[in-house]
Design a protein that fits this description.
This protein has 133 residues and is an alpha+beta fold. Helices cover 25% and strands 28% of the residues. It has two helices and six strands; from the N terminus they run E-E-E-H-E-H-E-E. It has a six-stranded mixed sheet, with helices on one face. Strand 2 and strand 3 form a beta hairpin. Helix 1 runs parallel beside helix 2. The longest helix has 18 residues. It is globular, with a radius of gyration of 14 Å.
Amino acid sequence: MSKEIVRTDNAPAPAHTFSQGVKKGGLFQVSGQGPMDPTTNQYIAEGDVKAQTRQTLENVKAILEAGGSSVEDVMMFRVYLTKREDFTAMNEAYGEFITENVPSGQLPSRTTVFVDLPHEVMLVEIDALAVTA
């Protein structure tokens, strides 16, 4: 069973030595994405976790779509936040995004973890695991 690397210009280029996404068998793992503009590769919305969450989810979605998948195919999102007090705003942005992108109502699983992220401006990072047919 071979591995397929997924790449798109509609999401930020990887900052280090990893792929935006990898498919093998029916699994599709999207690498952790941050709040970066895909065109400029610059962080956006400093201090605004809601705007950063939305951009980060849009980046994940772009990679899913580049791999022939959609948000509907996601089994699990992992959300990494730097501060507990950002949970409510992140959760609001996440809920809006999921409502728009999962019309079936069959919601994916999610875990939220509080961590230090690699860049001070980053308030959120999100990865996803999808299953495709």
